[in-house]
Amino acid sequence: MLDIQFIRKNAETVASKAQQKGYQVDIEQLLGFDEERKYLQAEVEDLRQKRNNLTKATKGQKPSEEQLTLGRQLRDEINNKQHRLEAVSKDFDRLLNDVPNIFADDVPIGDESASVEVTSYGDKPRGGQDHLDFMSERDWVDFERGAKVAGTKFYFLKGNGALLEEAIKQYVINFVINKGFTFLTVPHMVNLKTAVGAGFSPKSDKESNEYFIENEDLALIGTAEAPLTGYHANEILSEKQLPLFYVGHSPCYRREAGTYGKHTRGLFRVHQFNKVEMYAYTLPEQSQEVHEKIRSIEEEIWQSLNIPYRVINIASGDLGAPAFKKYDLEYWSKSDGVYRELTSCSNCTDFQARNLNIRVKRADGRLDMVHTLNGTASALSRSLIAIIEHYQTDDGKLRVPEVLRPYLNNQDEL
Q1: Which residue has the higher pLDDT, 57 or 104?
Q2: What pLDDT does residue 206 have?
Q3: The 3-state secondary structure of the chain, one letter per residue
Q4: Are 337 and 308 spatial neighbours (Cβ–Cβ below 8 Å)?
Q5: What is the spatial distance between Cα 211 and Cα 226, in angstroms, rounded to a whole number?
Q6: Are 284 and 369 spatial neighbours (Cβ–Cβ below 8 Å)?
Q7: Radius of gyration of the chain (CA)
Q8: Which domains does the chain have, with CATH numbers?
Q9: Less Cβ crowding at N or C end of the chain, within 10 Å?
Q10: Can you state the percent helix, strand and coil of the chain, rounding each to 5?
Q11: Spatial distance between the Cα atoms of 82 and 113, rounded to a whole number of angstroms
Q12: CB-based contacts of 106, cutoff 8 Å, min separation 6
């Protein structure tokens, strides 16, 4: 969430940027509840002080009828004001939680189509077999039996398909570890406080992608970002610890709500896939630099695999609530002749940290909110697609990218 003091000082900017992100929030009403909340808090404190003074005045002696009457009046007034304060605070919290993060000044304004290309790598060849046809012909993937045991858009990876995914995973984890990240495995479920704090709303949002566990305070993760955000919840980090860099591996579970009209063929959009996720906790003044660092690591990974791509600066209407700025790395689809999303990285500034009370103690004793960032090192199902499209041979084999060969018994082809 945003700091209410920031909203008070920048109400017009917050309202405008929320609208440009596509969120309908009533900042004027929020600030009205804020003023009423502050007034009622002061009233309750004043009445409690009067009651305390009355208690002190009657200590050790029998109160007069007038004092008893005053005591009952104060009790009733406190109860009435407290009930009103609780109601107003509930409305205030609801509206505050609806306010998205602001976005950087260099973020393009508009919907998805307004996103701007920042850089690109490699040529844009055409041809080759679609990944689903290629994998199905070789019995590397089985959607039919996946649907039989779990439902549509679930699948089995088999043989060389499964081994290739495992090779990509191991390569990417080692690549990121060598950049100074600490490897973590993570819980595959988080409580709702963590999910909502990280910016996901598994129960309340009809367009939410998360699965939640009925009658439990748990949701299946849609990304390791959620548990990695909660890792330092309610903690105070020291200034000298930051930045902290983590990389987590996990399955990701997504309902894929609201994806009508988007590309969904084969492995591109599925209900369960594996992912390697980078995460960082930084000082506020470090986060923009770290955002560029995470983006550069993503680019290095895909350059090392020689997959053509472009990086785009995501437009305001496609950012999502927590993100201050986001880059997408899109690979060139050789079979389709278009760019498709492969990875992303976001700077969420202090938005998630404020939700989950993650602070840093400065050298001078001040407490600040940390900044949090996330970036996909590899969404493994889409990584398979990109590699299969670009490494097919004329005789129907798959040439193994050189950097992956040590993870596949040094095989040149599959």
Answers
A1: 104
A2: 58
A3: CCCHHHHHHCHHHHHHHHHHHCCCCCHHHHHHHHHHHHHHHHHHHHHHHHHHHHHHHCCCCCCCHHHHHHHHHHHHHHHHHHHHHHHHHHHHHHHHHHCCCCCCCCCCCCCHHHCEEEEEECCCCCCCCCHHHHHHHCCCEEHHHHHHHCCCCCCEECHHHHHHHHHHHHHHHHHHHCCCCEEEECCCEECHHHHHHCCCCCCCCCCCCCCECCCCCCEECCCCHHHHHHCCCCCEEEHHHCCEEEEEEEEEECCCCCCCCCCCCCCCCCCEEEEEEEEEEECHHHHHHHHHHHHHHHHHHHHHCCCCEEEEECCHHHCCCCCCEEEEEEEEECCCCEEEEEEEEEECCCHHHHHHCCEEECCCCCEEECEEEEEEEEEHHHHHHHHHHHCECCCCCEECCHHHHHHCCCCCEC
A4: no
A5: 13
A6: yes
A7: 26
A8: 4-98 (1.10.287.40), 112-407 (3.30.930.10)
A9: C
A10: 45, 20, 35
A11: 49
A12: 313, 325
DSSP one-letter code for 108: P
**How are strands ordered across the β-sheet holding 371-379?**
116-121, 309-313, 325-333, 338-347, 371-379, 272-282, 244-253, 182-185
Retrieve residue 345's tokens. Answer: 């990285």
At residue 121, φ and ψ (nearest 5 deg) are -145, 135
**Which tokens hold the place of 203?**
């129960």
pLDDT at 202: 52
User: What's the pLDDT score for residue 64?
Assistant: 85
Q: How far apart are CA 291 and CA 278, in angstroms?
A: 11
Which helix (H) or strand (E) is 8 found in, with range? helix 4-9
Asked if residue 205 has pLDDT above 60, the reply is no
Rounded (10°) angle between helices 159-177 and 287-304: 140
Hey, what amino acid is at 78? I
With a cut of 60, say whether residue 257 has pLDDT above it: no
- Cis amide bond preceding 243, omega within 30: yes
The residue among 277, 339, 336 whose CA lies nearest residue 308 is 339
pLDDT of residue 261: 63
The mean pLDDT value of the chain amounts to 94
The tokens describing 150, both together, are 């779990």
Q: Predicted confidence band at 370 (pLDDT cuts at 50, 70, 90)?
A: very high
Q: Which residues pair with 325 in a beta bridge?
A: 347
Tokens (6 digits) for 156: 């089995």
